[in-house]
Amino acid sequence: MTALSMAGGYILFVFSMSLLEGSWSNVVDIFTLDHTGHIQVHKDDYAKRPKIHKTIENPTVVETTLKNHEDVTGWAPRVYSSALAYGGNKTSIAQIFGIDPEREPTVTRILQKVSAGKYFSAQPNADGYFPAMIGRGLANSLKLDVGGEIVLISSGADGSIANDIFIITAIIGNTTSFDRLGVFLPLTVAQEFLSIGGEVHEFALLARDKHDNEQLAAELQSLMPSLKVSPWQQIEATFYRTMQSDKQGNYFTMALIVFIVFIGVLNTVLMSVLERTKEFGVLKSIGCRPSELVKLIFIETVMLASISITVGLALILPVIAWFTEVGIKLDISVDMGGVVFDTMKGDLSAYVVFMPMGFMLLTAALISLPPGLRAARIQPRVALGGH
Amino acid sequence: MKTVIETKNLVRKFGEAQTQVTALSNVSTHIEEGEFTAIIGPSGSGKTTLLQLIGGLDEPDSGDVFLSGTNIANMSGKQLSDFRRDHIGFIFQSYNLIPVLSAEENIEYIMLLQGVDEKDRKTRVQEMLALVGLEGLGDRRPSQLSGGQQQRVAVARAMASKPDIILADEPTANLDSTTGIALLDMMRELNAQMNMTFVFSTHDQKIMDRADRLIHLEDGVIQLDEICSS
Hints:
- The complex is a heterodimer.
- By secondary structure, chain A is of the alpha+beta class.
- Helix content of chain A is 48%, strand content 23%.
- Chain A has twelve helices and twelve strands.
- In chain A, the strands form two sheets. A six-stranded mixed barrel of chain A has the order 2-3-8-5-7-6. Chain A has a two-stranded antiparallel ribbon with strand order 11-12.
- In chain A, a hairpin with a 2-residue loop joins strand 11 and strand 12 (339-344).
- In chain A, helix 1 (2-36) runs antiparallel to helix 7 and helix 7 (237-275) runs parallel beside helix 10 (350-367).
- The longest helix of chain A is centred in the middle third of the chain and has 39 residues, at 237-275.
- Chain A is elongated.
- Chain A starts with a helix and ends with a helix.
- The relative contact order of chain A is 0.18.
- By secondary structure, chain B is an alpha/beta fold.
- Chain B has seven helices and ten strands.
- Chain B has a six-stranded mixed beta sheet with strand order 6-7-8-3-9-10, with helices on both faces. A four-stranded antiparallel beta sheet of chain B has the order 2-1-4-5, covered by helices on one side.
- Classes of the chains: A alpha+beta, B alpha/beta.
- Chain A binds chain B through residues 278-279, 282-292, 379-381, 384, 386-387, and chain B through 14-15, 21, 23, 48-49, 52, 55, 57-58, 77-78, 81-86, 88-90, 92, 96, 98-99, 109-110, 113-114, 157, 161.
C-alpha cells in the first residue's frame, strides 16, 4: 500500500507536470510564433523605447551571422512605424509592419493568420500600387475588404511626410489579434515609405530548441556586440513573469500533494519501526550502532521510493508520450489571435520526468529520518521485553 | 586465570516511588576466562537484569561493570555498541533471529557490522554452521527451522564475531528436553574447545548440571556462589 501510494503520487506529479509544461509550452508557441520569435535583435534599447531612427544600419552582417548559425532555424527582418490610415471617408490609427514576404513565414504563423484574401508578395500590381495586408480590427473600422484601397500617412525617418496608397490583398487575424490595427507592407516598400533605406528595426528569429533560446541569445550577443540580442523572456518580461508565477503556484500545489502522500508514508514507516522494535533491539544488542539503524531505515525508505517511482514511471511514460504526441481534442477550440488551437497536449522532457523523481527521493530521504531516529533510540532492554 | 567479568556493587531499581522494585542490590562478583557459569534463581530474582547489565544492554543505577578490565559504565552509546559487537555474544530465550534474513545472513550480519570482508564472512558462516550442525540449512529462513535449529543459529551468530564472552538468557527455556540437552552439550564442547566464557541465566536443571559454577540470586542479592565439580 505504501509503495502503491508513492507510485500514485509520482504518477500524479509527473502527469500534472507534463500537463503544466505542455500547456505553457503551447502558450509560449502561440506567443512566440505569432510575432515575437524566440529571440530578437535590435539597435540599442529599441525594444523598450522604439524610435524610427534606431535602425540596424548594416542588416547584411546580421543576416550573414544568422544564416551561418546552425541553431537558428528561421529569421526575418522587420521595420515598424505608426501611421494614420484612411479608407473611404473613415480614419484610424494604424501600426505599420514592414516584413519580408518570404522570410516572415520562417519565423511566424502569418500564413495561417490570413483570414481573407491572399498572402502578399513585394511586387506592385498592374497599376503600380503596392500590396498591403491589414488587421481585422482596422478592416472593420475603415469598412475595408480585400481589393480595397488604404491610404497611409506617416513621417519618414528624415522628417519628410510619408503618404501612399496601397491595395489590400489580405485580412490578417481577428479582432483580438495583437496586430488587429496592423498594416503589413513588404519590407522594401516599407523601407522606402519610411525613408530608412535598406535599414531595419528588428530581426526576429527561431532557435532550433526553444528551451535553449536564452543560451543562443547570449551566444549571438557575443557575435554581434554592437547590437542588443534579447530572448523572448526579456522582450515579453511581464508575460514571462506571469508564467513563472503561475508555474510556481502549480509546483507548490504539486509539492503539497506529494507532501500529503509522504505524511501517509511517514506514518507507515513509523508504524513499521514500532512493529519491528524487537528486531531493532536485537540488532542493537548484537552491536549495531544507532547511526547504522538510521542508515538502515533511510536505505529501506529510499529503496521503497525508488521501486515505487520505477513502477510509476513505467506506467505513466506511455501515457505522457501519447499525451505529448497526440493529445486530447478539445470540445471547443480556442482562437488565439487568429491561430486556432483545438488540442491539449502534454510535455515529455527530462525535466518533467526527473524533477518529480528527485523531489520524491529527497522527500523519502527526509521522512525516513524521524523513524530512523526513533529506531536509534530504542533501548535493547525494553525492546527485548525487560522491565 | 584472567578475570573477564567483574561487577562492583551493582544496584538496579525499576519503577517509581511506592511501586519501585529493587532488581539488584549491591551485586559484586567476578567471572574468569573460560568459565561455564550459570546464574540461577527463581523468577524475578534479578538473573536477566544482571545479565543485561553485564552485556551493556542496560545501565545500573549505581555500581560498575568491568569487562576485560574496561568499565562499560563510562562508555558512550556508540562505544558500547562497538564493544558489544566485538566482545560479547548474546543468546536469547526466544532466539531473536531476524525473520527476513536466512540462517546464513543472520550469522553473517554481525560480521558485516564488524567490517569483515565478504570472502572471510562467507567462510566463517560455513564454519559456524558446521560447528552447530546445520550444514545445508543456511539458506532457510527462521520460520523454516525448528526451535532447536533456530537456537543453534543463534549460538552460531553469537560466536561468529569471535567474542570474549557469550551471555545466554534462558537459552533452553523454549526447547524440549532432548533438544535442550543437545544444545547444551554443544555449547559445553565449544566452551572446552575455544576457552570461550559462557554465562547463563537459567533455572534449568540441565544447565546447572553442566555448569562449572553456580551463582544463586534471590531478591537481587547473591545468596550463594558455588564452584561445581564436573
